[in-house]
Amino acid sequence: GVIKESLYPFKTYKISRLRGKGFKRALDFEEILRIINLDLSDHPHLINTRNYFVFSFYTRGMNFADMMCLEWKDVEANVIYYTRAKTKGNFSIAIMPPVQKILDYYREHGYGNKYVFPLLFREDYTPTQLADRKHKMLGIYNIELKEVAKLCNITKNVSSYVARHSFANCLKQKGVATDVISESLGHQNLAVTQAYLKELDTEIVDKALEVLL
What we know:
Layout: H1 29-36, H2 47-58, H3 64-68, E1 79-83, E2 90-94, H4 97-109, H5 127-151, H6 162-173, H7 178-185, H8 190-200, H9 203-209
Antiparallel strand pairs: 1-2
């Protein structure tokens, strides 16, 4: 109340725009296989976390919020249909054997409600309750992902978004064309994908530098 609102300098200028972006972290396919094949007989509390990560990887990096709200009606004989909450893009994803195995597991071990994963135990959450539940379960997921990574001798910082980054990275390493990767990620144009991939993997550059040794 000391000065006029018209003199306030931060309506359009925000300090947050100066923040640097963190590096995208991605696993290579050998590390993904370590997670898939990890024996969790002594760590049963990590089974769900491993399943969520593998499911996300094989569904083109489906994010945690979309997995949490995925319903059985979105799963047909061999395709999953969903709308990505972040971008509102529509996806139809072929169900690969690792995904089918996880779906079969949760038909038996889910909550028995309309949701695929045992993350929402009620069907009548308010928007605020849903946001709180997502925040809580995502926190647990990220903590447990670090346990999984440690058991797999993976030193990279593994979090929920690493599944999406790793999916793109592994396709790139396998020689899949950038336009196909772009389509699979749901990017609006190739420039976005090219920038995305450029951040992910420095292995090719690292190998090129070996000629100097």
